[in-house]
């Protein structure tokens, strides 16, 4: 359940980031399902990467939906990586490339929206100890 004061652009961005994470988890599961003896090491490390990246992105999406600032950086980094992926497959898979492009831009705009920044900066400031706490 999300906090009622989380702006709609941030909720949209967080939701799309979580969906991206779930898709990465599915890729990891598919990689595990297709393991063969000849490529066991490569398949396992690839699966672990996708499972960890997907799980992390789901966690960051959840954090953003709760108004937590710590999810912002990883989600934005994932969008930069999605843009790079969209660019690299643009000539072979144009529709996939366009979908990646649109989702990455929507998520980035939602996270960088002024209302989102105001909320996330406020939560970051509340999470940090003040000067009185640092002196103790």
The ordered string of helix (H) and strand (E) elements is: HHHHHH
Distance between the termini: 35 Å
Q: Are there runs of 5+ residues with pLDDT below 50, and where?
A: none
Shape: globular
Largest sheet: none
Name the beta content range.
Answer: under 5%
Mean pLDDT: 91
Protein structure class = mainly alpha
In total, how many beta strands? Answer: 0
Tell me the radius of gyration: 18 Å
Count of individual helical segments = 6
Percent helix, as a range, is over 70%
Number of domains: 1
Keywords:
136 residues
How would you describe the overall organization of this protein?
- There is one protein chain.
- The protein starts with 7 loop residues before the first helix and ends with a helix.
- The chain is built from six helices and no strands.
- With 136 residues, the protein is an all-alpha fold.
- The chain has one domain (8-127).
- The mean pLDDT is 91.
Give the topology.
Layout: H1 8-33, H2 40-65, H3 72-88, H4 94-112, H5 114-127, H6 131-135
């Amino acid at each position: 359940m999300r906090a009622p004061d989380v702006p709609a652009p941030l909720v949209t961005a967080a939701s799309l980031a979580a969906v991206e994470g779930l898709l990465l988890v599915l890729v990891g599961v598919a990689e595990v399902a297709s393991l063969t003896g000849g490529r066991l090491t490569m398949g396992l490390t690839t699966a672990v990467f996708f499972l960890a990246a997907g799980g992390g992105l789901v966690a960051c999406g959840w954090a953003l939906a709760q108004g937590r600032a710590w999810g912002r950086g990883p989600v934005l980094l994932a969008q930069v990586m999605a843009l790079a992926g969209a660019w690299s497959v643009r000539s072979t898979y144009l529709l996939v490339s366009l979908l990646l492009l649109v989702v990455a831009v929507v998520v980035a705009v939602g996270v960088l929206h002024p209302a989102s920044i105001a909320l996330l900066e406020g939560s970051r400031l509340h999470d940090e100890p003040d000067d009185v706490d640092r002196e103790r």
